[in-house]
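=== RUN LOG ===
request id: a7f3
mode: sequence -> structure
chains: 1
length: 183
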Amino acid sequence: MSRPRPLPLDPIEEAHRQWVGHGWGNVADGMAAVTSLVRAQQIVMARVDEVLKPTGLTFSRYELLMLLAFSKAGALPMAKASARLQVHPTSVTNTVDRLEGAKLVERVPHPSDRRATLIEITDAGRELVAKATEDLNAKVFAMPGLPPNRLQTLLQLLAEFRHAAGDFDTGEGTAHWSATGAE
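=== RESULT ===
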């Protein structure tokens, strides 16, 4: 994967310095944290996009295919897919439209609820998402950019952040990440 030439200074650190210099020191750390998260997301998505590009999938399409592949029946109601992916139903509809056009999923009537439609992964969808997962595992997930002990710290911090934002509630506080990451 190609990497851009590094900058000779950390622009977020410079922004932090400027925030402090302009009298906003009390929020400078927050600004730097938010800006760092946004930049980190850009870096990660560029890596993911580069790996997924040959498959024709976007990350949102990949996520929906994996959700369906992981489901017992290979199918889920649209509303449940929207909730599990934590995206607006319109986003799921648009994603399904694209995947259906590529013959990777199909809409089928719900067997017990005439008002609901199921999204069902096709054999072609299973094959493509398996290949995409193999590539992502090898080229992105195996090398996320931090050593394992630091990765666990990041996972815990992000879980705390997401929990505080109301992203999930397990009833027992934040997620518990194992020391090895594979329990």
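=== NOTES ===
The chain has a mean pLDDT of 92.
The two ends are 30 Å apart (CA to CA).
=== END ===
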